[in-house]
Amino acid sequence: MKNINIFCFGFGQVAKNFIKKLIIEKYNITLTTTSRSESSKENFNGINYNSYLFNSERFDNNLVAKLKEADHILVSIPPEKQEDLVVKNFSKFIENFKVKWITYLSATSVYGDHNGGWVNESSETRATSSKGIERLKAESSWLSLKMSKKLSVQIFRLSGIYSNEKNILVSLKLGTAKLISKSDHYFSRIHVEDIANILFKSLSKFKSGEIYNLADDKPSSSEEITLHGAKLLNIKNLKKIEVNELESEMLKTFYKDSKKVSNEKVKNYFNYDLKFPSYIEGLNYIRDKLI
User: Fold this and answer.
1) What is the per-residue DSSP string for the chain?
2) What is the mean pLDDT of residues 245-261?
3) What is the DSSP string of 30-98?
4) Once rounded to an integer, what is the mean pLDDT over residues 255-260?
5) How confident is the model at residue 291, as a pLDDT?
6) Is the whole-model pTM more than 0.85?
7) What pLDDT, in 10s, does the model give residues 63-115?
8) Average pLDDT of span 17-24
9) pLDDT score, position 290
10) Taking the CB of residue 287, how many other CB atoms lie within 10 A of it?
11) Are the C-beta atoms of residues 237 and 179 closer than 8 Å to each other?
């Protein structure tokens, strides 16, 4: 049985699915996490762990000792106010530790708008949204730390994440899904299980300083995915709305960028075949197994 001592900054769906994968692979796991709320003792799938307060205002000093013991660090919390909070608060500690695997989860919003064209890890980053710009700065912070302190850092740029619990089928059943029409608008997505599987692959095939896109094989429009979900659930006559009718500024920002994210690098390097190559396999699986 392999041992792993992992510190997760943030414990959302990606981190949780990664821990589930480690459990499946029979790892002996020592887990520590952070939360925006007060420190507490928790249990996840049979693992007892400490969750420590950490937000932009303050953190529980007790987490530093746990961080020092970690041999793996997963960073999934977003930057705030143009700064990566982990680098800002803990770089002086991390640079003196012997951690062998630091993974920063970024986002494909760093690419900005490419008019529906393909992007890969060498493409120009044209982030225009505040979140995309913040992500770029955070990536730069981690890569600078890697260069100056010779830390083992890798970056994954995540496309839109969906899961068995959070997906268009759930939104359709709740009546909250919107059929939004915008011609030639493409975006990419990936099932959270594929993210967890690739993170696991990287434990044994780690190359410091690398950036990888995480996306499935089929960039598509929001309309296409919603219509497929509606077909699976036999929902008809969805009302179509135009982008300019949207009230949510976040959604409007999302529709400003159109791009197809290439996953060739990550699939080739890790020799990985996606469990869900497109939304079709992903949503069909969710419908058949969980709904």
Assistant:
1) --EEEEEEES-SHHHHHHHHHHHHTT-EEEEEEEESS--EEEEETTEEEEEEEB-SS-B-TTHHHHHHH-SEEEE-PPPBTTB-HHHHHHHHHHTTS---EEEEEEEGGGGB--TT-EE-TTS--B--SHHHHHHHHHHHHHHHHHHHH---EEEEEE-EEE-SSSSHHHHHHHT---EEE-TT--B-EEEHHHHHHHHHHHHHS--TT-EEEE--S--B-HHHHHHHHHHHTT---PPEEEGGG---HHHHHHTT---EE--HHHHHHHT---SSSSHHHHHHHHHHHH-
2) 84
3) EEEEEESS--EEEEETTEEEEEEEB-SS-B-TTHHHHHHH-SEEEE-PPPBTTB-HHHHHHHHHHTTS-
4) 92
5) 57
6) yes
7) 999 999 999 999 999 999 889 999 999 999 999 888 999 999 999 999 999 99
8) 98
9) 63
10) 14
11) no
pLDDT range class, residue 158, cuts 50, 70, 90: very high
The three-point CA angle 148-153-156 to 5° equals 135
> Domains of the chain, with CATH numbers?
3-163+189-216+261-276 (3.40.50.720)
Quick check: 238 and 286 in contact, CB under 8 A? Answer: no
For the chain, the residue count is 291
170 vs 182: CA distance, rounded Å: 22
Tokens of 97: 């530790």
108-145 b/e (C-beta count within 10 Å ≥ 16 → b): bbbbbebebeebebebebebebebbbbbbbbbebbbeb
* Averaged confidence pLDDT in the chain: 94
Provide mean pLDDT across the span 233-243.
88
